[in-house]
Amino acid sequence: AWRVVHRGPAMLAAIQSPGGRFSGLHRTWLDLSQPKGKARVIHPETGEALEGKKALGSKKGGAIRLTGGLQSATMVCAEGLETTWSAMMGEVYPDAAFWCLVDLGNMSGRRQSGPGLKYAGLPDLDDGEAFVPPPWVERLIFVMDGDSDPRDTRAKLEAGLRRAMAMRPGLRGQIAAAPNGFDLNDVLMGGGDG
């Protein structure tokens, strides 16, 4: 086994389980000399570029809770911390709770599979490990970055919203999408069409 050592700063965030207990840690390595501060992490032996983020522990159904509490009827969730913060800084939903759901799989959960279902956005409702918002949330907004496969990403987010609405009757869900080819941070910094 090998270990990559990054000698720069790191951003650490607690992942909380649905019950609010600490369940994991999300690390993002930073390099302020790089665009958007993203560190380039290189395997010391192979020279292979590695992911500059890592979650340790469990993220199942959990979230990095940036803001909000029982008083927030609207919840805005995104896959990554940077996107969640960008949504928060955009000040479109000033009274919302902003939670990062760590990755797209935690947002979407398992989906129904079979012929013609890849992009249907239908959740496997037997999946009890994906994120479902707390009962006090009345409106759930998933932020969709436009810098990944748009059809697949939308299908995953639709599955997650449909699961949440099935588990929380009366919940309203929607997707807020960044322009194609951009993430929300690009938009906030003046890029994209939004």
Number of strands: 10
The average pLDDT score comes to: 87
Distance between the termini: 45 Å
Q: Uncertain segments of ≥5 residues (pLDDT<50)?
A: none
Please outline the major beta sheet. 5 strands, mixed
Structural class: alpha/beta
List the total number of helices: 4
Strand content is 25-35%
| Helical fraction | 10-25%
Shape: globular
Biggest sheet: strand arrangement? 6-8-7-9-10
Order of helices and strands: EEEEEEEHEHEHEH
Rg: 17 Å
Short account of what is shown:
With about 190 residues, the chain is of the alpha/beta class. The protein is built from four helices and ten strands.
Summary tags:
194 residues, alpha/beta, five-stranded mixed sheet, 10 strands
Overall description:
It is built from 4 helices and 10 strands; from the N terminus they run βββββββαβαβαβα. With 194 residues, the protein is of the alpha/beta class. It has a 5-stranded mixed β-sheet, with helices on both faces. Strands 1-2-5 form a 3-stranded antiparallel β-sheet, with no helix packed on it. It has a two-stranded antiparallel sheet with strand order 3-4. The mean pLDDT is 87.
Task: Describe how the helices and strands are arranged.
Layout: E1 10-16, E2 22-29, E3 41-42, E4 49-50, E5 53-57, E6 64-67, E7 74-78, H1 81-89, E8 97-100, H2 104-108, E9 139-144, H3 150-167, E10 172-177, H4 184-188
Parallel strand pairs: 7-8, 7-9, 9-10
Antiparallel strand pairs: 1-2, 2-5, 3-4, 6-8
